[in-house]
Amino acid sequence: MSSQQLSISKTLEVSHQVEVANGENLILDSSGVVTISNDGNLVVINGKSEIVWSSNASNSVADAKAQLSDSVNLILLKQSSNSSANAAETLWESFQHMTDSFVAKMKLSTNSRTNEKQALTSWKSPSDPSIGSFSASLDP
Hints:
By secondary structure, the chain is mostly beta strands. It contains no helices and ten strands. The protein has strands at 7-11, 15-20, 33-36, 42-45, 51-54, 64-68, 74-78, 89-93, 119-125, 128-137.
């Protein structure tokens, strides 16, 4: 049986999954749906309408929209009445929540105020994207 995950891929010479959102909570059938919830978070829902992953943006809004940039950064934006894309406010972005890949325009950093650090983490195995035994991060 195959499993489902929210995966962002970029094809260069070969396709590579750049990010996997719900690696710890895979959906084991084809029922998965990616949507924006009523509270404005990006969510993955299984066939039982259970949330298996959420962006958990603390500053989410009801009128959010999702956008995938050319650099494969999945961004949750506050919709703006202004038609300019630059006027939209970023609520959450996948580049700030790394998994196992580091691509152009990503930044590995540590917030010295909160001690929150971003880390690259290995997969448990080539077919299991849950968190593995290895990670890389910066010390504050």
